[in-house]
Write a structure and sequence with these properties.
alpha/beta; 12 helices; single chain
Length: 290
Amino acid sequence: MKKVLTLLLTILILCSLFTGCDNTTTASDKLTVISTVFPGYDFARQIGGEKVDVSILLPAGSESHHFEPTPKDIVKIQNCDLFIYTGGENDAWVEEILSSLDTSPTMVKMLDVVKYPTDDEHVWTSPLYAGKISESVKDALCKIDPENEIFYSENHLAYSTDLGKLNEDFRKFFDARNPVLVFGDRFPLKHFAELYGVTYYSAFDGCSSETEPSAAELADIIKVVKTQNIDTIFCIEFSNRKVAESISEATGAKIRQFHTCHNVTQEELNNGATYISLMEENLKVLEEVF
């Protein structure tokens, strides 16, 4: 990865010397905002509205764990007004690129916004943390564009209300039903689980896509499903479903998807998917299952 980044940074320097390489500057009054993942992208467009031009680096339908930036991506980061990223191990490439730039954009690093007591970097899965991150996005936009501070603040207030309702709806569900969730998959939802006191089991200890559960771990999950008479297990978006299908074959449990919101498909993007709409769909699935 370091060799790749070194090559990309070299190309970036060449691009800055020769105007024929790439020019992302446009004649627009809108602020340019770039996010590495979908939640930051969505928070920015909800708060920035028509005042911002927001884009996401992670291609639709792809996994963030395998993302590698292109020279064009690096140029975009250097030239944008606001850059939003998660931080942590998955974004190690971001830190190296940012440290190499002569001038850096205003930035919101999600892991600096919230205190995260788990080893899970998917902090946005907690609606409360999503609220804190979106507030930081609002503050950054107001700092960059103080003339539109009222506009951003009003949008943020409305969005905070929607996030508050989402949080309350999940709270009511878990308080009333207290279900046991079994994931035949990775589990990048520890912040969500901690917020609502969710009892869960997962086939993978963490959220790395580079690991597979052992035979013993798989047997333990199958035992839980059988002994607790669980008829539905979950997988996350972009999963290959191999582990979930193995558990399903051994137990007869159905498989449903729980969206972690880290990225969306092109179809979801075209249909106007948002962080809140995806989380509301998760709640709907839970209500159908339990």
